Amino acid sequence: MGGIRLKEIEVRVVDNDVEKAIRLLKKKIQNDGLFKRLKLKKSYEKPSEFRRRKKREAKRRERIAAARAARRR
Fold first, then answer.
1. Interatomic CA distance for residues 67 and 40, integer angstroms
2. pTM over 0.85
3. How far apart are CA 32 and CA 26, in angstroms?
4. How many whole angstroms separate alpha carbon 51 and alpha carbon 47?
5. What does the angle CA 39 – CA 41 – CA 44 come to, to the nearest 5 degrees?
6. Measured by CB atoms within 10 angstroms of the end CB, which terminus of the chain is less buried, N or C?
7. 6 falls in which pLDDT band (50, 70, 90)?
8. Residue ranges covered by each domain of the chain
């Protein structure tokens, strides 16, 4: 009920290549944003800091989108 739905992250180990599997797992976790969420939950974030961070992230996403759109032209 209203909780965060976690998706399963699965990595298969092929030919006992554990190092490669660990690299893949780290990449999947990073792409999923799990490291970032854990880092943010490590300590309390004031509501004003939360809003400021969200605005900063939104501006960053807008800049990236604008740069991609400019490259396509």
1. 27
2. no
3. 10
4. 6
5. 115
6. N
7. low
8. 8-42, 44-73
What whole-number percentage of the chain has pLDDT above 70?
92
Please, which residues have CB within 8 angstroms of residue 21's CB and are 6 or more apart in sequence? 11, 12, 13, 14
Q: Which positions ≥6 away from 11 have C-beta within 8 Å?
A: 21, 24, 25, 28
For residues 42 and 69, give the distance between their C-alpha atoms in angstroms, rounded to a whole number.
36
Q: What is the largest CA-CA distance in the chain?
A: 50
CA pair distance 24, 14, nearest whole angstrom:
12
